[in-house]
Amino acid sequence: MVTGSSKGIGEGIARGLAREGAVMIVHGRNLSRAEEVAHDIVTQGGRAHVVTGDLTKDDEVRRLVERAQAFAGPIDILVNNAGGSGISEDWSTTRPETWASGYDRNTLAAVRVIACVLPKMRNAGWGRIVNVASLAAMMPPPGRPDYSAAKAAMVAMSASLAKAVAGAGITVNTVSPGTIQSGKLEATFRKAAAGQGLAEDAPWAEVERAALPLFAAVPMG
């Protein structure tokens, strides 16, 4: 199961695992979008089922995990990808409630799903858990401090869990992506590039050159 796999990075992970032969549980909050991804996986020879639910709600997490297990049996590979940043704030505007919401949407969402799938992984003596954090967890930018802190918590959480289940045949790892091209990111980049005078339909390479320095502060470019 890959949470948040109806689009973006999660969709890419789900498609990759399906190509490797995994029976995929595609998850999202938008049913039609999740069904589209699952249908595409199936038409390409893979196997996929769909579950929906809000990962910030305990009851919905329990229901979606139960439904996933009814489709495909115990979940032995879990990728906690759902999350993301919310309102853009910096240290002059940030509010505690923004931090609480971001922590719930990222860190606690992963904790809820893990709590539901871990018992059966222990019983089976095998499991793989991958938590998707962010490069911001280790190299936090000055803006969106709530997001960096929530993702850093996921890194620490993963290390703790890995030690707790080390003797049970279960591994826990964190993946911390940098800037990844997705539909949402492309729209954001094109808007920023347009503000610098580029046409809305400019080639992606030109858009990337114009917008990347604004979003990914890599000293060498």
Q: What number is the mean pLDDT? A: 93
Radius of gyration: 18 Å
Structural class by secondary-structure content: alpha/beta
Task: Give a count of the beta strands, DSSP E runs of length 2 or more.
Answer: 5
CATH topology tier name of the largest domain: Rossmann fold
What is the end-to-end distance?
A: 36 Å
Task: Trace the largest sheet across and list its strands.
Answer: 3-4-5
So, CATH architecture of the largest domain? 3-Layer(aba) Sandwich
Note the beta-strand portion. 5-15%
What is the CATH class of the largest domain?
Answer: Alpha Beta
Largest sheet: 3 strands, parallel
The poorly predicted ranges are none
Query: How many discrete domains?
Result: 2
Number of helices: 7
Estimate the helix proportion, in percent: 40-55%
Describe the structure.
It contains seven helices and five strands. Helix 3 runs parallel beside helix 4. The protein has 221 residues and is α/β, with parallel strands linked by helices. The mean pLDDT is 93. Helix 4 (96-124) links the parallel strand 3 and strand 4 (127-132). A three-stranded parallel β-sheet has the order 3-4-5, covered by helices on one side. It has helices at residues 8-19, 31-43, 58-72, 96-124, 145-164, 183-194, 204-215; strands spanning 23-28, 47-52, 77-80, 127-132, 170-175.
